[in-house]
Amino acid sequence: MIKKFHIFANGDETSAQIVQEVRSKMVAAGAEFSEDEKKADLIFCIGGDGALLRLLRQYDFPEAPIVGINTGHLGFFQEITVDGIDELIRMLAHGDYHIQENSALSAEICTESETKQITAINEIVIRGEGERLMHLDMSIGKNYISRFSGDGILICTPAGSTAYNYSLGGVIVDPEVDMLQITPIAPVNNSAYRSFTSGIIVPTNKTIEILPAKAEDRFVVVIEDGRIVARDDVKKVTVGVAGRKAKIVRFSSYNFWSKVKDKIL
Fold first, then answer.
1. Mean of the pLDDT values across residues 56-82?
2. Where is 87: in which H helix or E strand?
3. Which residues are catalytic?
């Protein structure tokens, strides 16, 4: 039984109405609302996939599991729609759910002035500003692999394989598979440059190191889950699996591939 719960929501009118409904029904079921997410047994995330990403950033990947109620557009991460709240509360009360743990990405960005640490649940993108061709040296597990020429490189988790990665031609990966995926963005192959053109699958015990190959390539844009986190004179970006995970509540009705078929394919 959930003893304490917390609610994180979008600021739109629909989500505000759902907040009140969830709060009153959970209290009626015997649970207590907590203003502090650190003291909650469960966090409701009301909104779309963007709301979940903001929750993870703001709460720094909380220990409490998250259950999503979709009031957004795609709602791939979110578990239920607004018409399923009563059934949601019934299943929570009966313990009819499990926790899906999604590994996050951790990146260390080294610039001339600082070293910055970031965490992403979907993907980290390293690319140039505007339309400038980038030349990036890539190593996996300290082993030099290739010099890449093109728009940039995306590194994603299985959770992120259905997002930007898929639009680039990357493969969709079941979240139960433990791996990272490296996907090229507009690779260049001609008589002057040779780049890898398909995705690379990497085990989670390896780190991926990206270095600008030339002095003019050091103005790099680093994007974490759609948000620019660095635009600077970057010396090196090192990406691996983070120690933290996003804990998402899933019910018996949840099926990853059914959701892929309904929302993406």
1. 89
2. helix 85-93
3. 49
